[in-house]
Write a structure and sequence with these properties.
This protein is an all-alpha fold. Helix content is about 50%, strand content about 0%. It is built from 24 helices and two strands. A two-stranded antiparallel sheet has the order 1-2. Strand 1 and strand 2 form a beta hairpin. Helix 6 packs across helix 12 and helix 13 packs across helix 14. The longest helix is centred in the N-terminal third of the chain and has 19 residues. The chain is globular, with a radius of gyration of 22 Å.
Length: about 500
Amino acid sequence: MSTSGTPIRAAPDGRPVDRNGFYLSEDQVDAGVDAAGELLVLTKEQMEIFRRREKKWQVMLKEWSHWMPKKRDKVKARCRKGIPNSLRGWAWRCLCGADQLEVNAPPGRFNQLVAEAEHPVNATGPMAEYLEIIERDLDRTFPHNDRFSVKGGEAQEELRKVLRALTMANKEVGYCQGMGMIVGTLMMQMPTEQAFWSMTALMDPGLGYIHGVFDSGLSEIQICGQVLRNLMKTHLPVIYAKFEAEMFEPVLYMVDWFMVCFVKTLPWASVLRVWDMFMFEGMKIIYRVSLAILRLSKKELIKKSNGMGELMMYLKNLPDSILVPDVLMPVALDISITTKEIATLHRAAKAEYEKTHPPKPKEEKKPSAASSHPPYAAVAFSSPAGSARPSASSSLDVSDEGPQSHAADESAQPQDPAAAILPPLATDSADTAELQGAVSTFKISEEPSDATAPDDEELPPDTGARSDVDDGSDIDLDDTIGDWRGAVDAEPMGVEAELKTVEVQLIAVREV
């Protein structure tokens, strides 16, 4: 950002692109904003505010081992206000623990994994199939971004390296469509190898981010869907009752949201704001934003009367007006849910899922490097050596922290996962009365309000601009939950054809 000149550059075809490589429309150029809705040129006063905030983040990042243990509330407040563009990559790496994973890894580990993917032994079998799918997915990753849209270009080559290295490092998971969108988002903010370690941290079972969402069968996505369903029952009883009446399963609309952390759903300005908070608070933010989207869509969803097909089409084509940061973020942060509550619901949902999906016998395998961490449902999380992230012995209040704060006192948790579902209580909610008591609600502990730090000045609000990453040629994330690990390309469907497939999709989901 600068007070003079223009940060817009021209793509090889002459079209204007912003700092992240997104093509800009004429309206955006005329308005002087980038794809994230941020001003391309700042006034002198705005620049002074920006530099002060940037300096605060620089001081904080240089003294990270001091700030995270002792001034977490301040870090949290600043993440919620948004991280300066110039420091976002550095901040994300520190927040998710990727910096420590990289420091503690054997020298040259990334390049070793890249080279391993080229070894002849991987030319056949499961690894070969994964590597083949990666090749097809390269063109599907941010097709409207100058950095990734050039076939065989530098960004695609670097993306290939990261995805192949991740596949070699996580052979039990392999590769799943959707990974490229997350890695691509990281690569826009940091160098290639740092993006690899950041994705490794996000997939680490000990850090409480998106571990499990790419596993075979996508069991974690289905469990997250059940958690979201139970949260809706408490916080959005009218919408919950509507969806239940239509037999509208969460996996038919929330796969995009959870698997790629809203990258394909929100305007780019909102994506960055959500990820700034996600890196500190973990999955709690994904649930909050999901509930916020549904709350803001309440009137439209309730009006839909043509079954779940109409509901699905609305949620696949949400209006920009409810997704811009100034509208979406306040609603998301107003929804009071805690990490402890989510962990409790997750244990119960996982126990219920395992009753109907008994694990298949599998051969004994040598534990991976990440297997030394406890699973997500165990609630207690360990930290990489030397990391400032608290360990399971931390005394932090789990009701107000992110993935690093899952370290709850196990003695305070229900021993029987099924007992984690709280008993229904009476409610005088006007929404519930509207449906004549069709919904029972759960009483949960409220999260303390988070007052923003008064000394952190804010830039003018973002206007938001949809990232527009879907060109119609890639496979929809929510066509069916089983399609995700397939290797075939889907033909674009018209609206009528898509609506007719909803019943079939639901049956397919329930049979998984």
